[in-house]
Amino acid sequence: MELTFSTPLRGRIVMCDDLHVPDVLARHADLYKFLWARRGDLQLEVDHIRMTLREGQIMPLAPAHRIGSLQPAGDYLALLFDSNFYCLFSQDGEVSCNGFLFNGTSEVMCLTPDAAQAETLARIVEEMRHEYGVEDGLREEMLRMQLKRFIILCTRIARAMFPAVDRRERLFDTVRRYYMLVDQHFRTLKRVQEYAAMLHRSPKTLANLFAACGRPSPLEIIHDRINAEARRLLLYTSKPAKEIAYLLGYEDTAAFSRFFTKMNGESITAFRQREKNDGETA
Known about the structure:
This protein is of the alpha+beta class. It has helices spanning 22-27, 92-95, 115-132, 139-159, 168-185, 192-198, 203-212, 218-236, 241-247, 253-264, 268-281; strands at 2-6, 12-16, 32-39, 42-46, 49-53, 58-61, 67-72, 75-81. Helices cover 48% and strands 16% of the residues. Strand 1 and strand 2 (12-16) form a beta hairpin.
């Protein structure tokens, strides 16, 4: 099953259960994604890291994440869209998910809805499925409205993961805004102090907030975002290390090489060779 709607401005929203087919996956690689394992587990590879989405769980993925393979053990649903259909940046005040559900780090989130939330999500999916078959000028806005509901509910599930109910809203908003800023500026800004200033917080306050909600430290998030981008460029392009270092804001290639080795436990050359060998034997 694959249902696709395209807008006059080339926006797309897709609902399918065949994303594991290589040509389908390649066709939708640049879209935002929700993967929902509805019955049975879903084995997948994201940025060459093997993961398991357990039955009932939902995984949001940004376009930066590269899915290498999907192996369903039952039924799953993929809900996909692009910024031309629903722009998370311009609609941030509506859904408050940008930078948290969707960011470019290697830390992929798994949401576990309870029975009532799963029932509501299933109802939204069925309403969307119905709208695909409606032939009128309101279909686009109805699909956008249902997608917005799906995103908001997933955001609520994610927000509930934060402790301290009285501070949850503030914690959630600060964390996601930090991720957003890191996504936007990681190539040029590499110090926590620079992001803290944009959030009108001190570095110590940020560190305490992130620790309180069980997130990696602010510096670890910066380093992870740089490393995730470095790995993608090494894996999916033929750019030399010197050019990648420049793209990531390193004037000194040696400094970038030391950073990469520290983050990954192997040199750039060894990493590329190992991934190449793994790909040949897969």
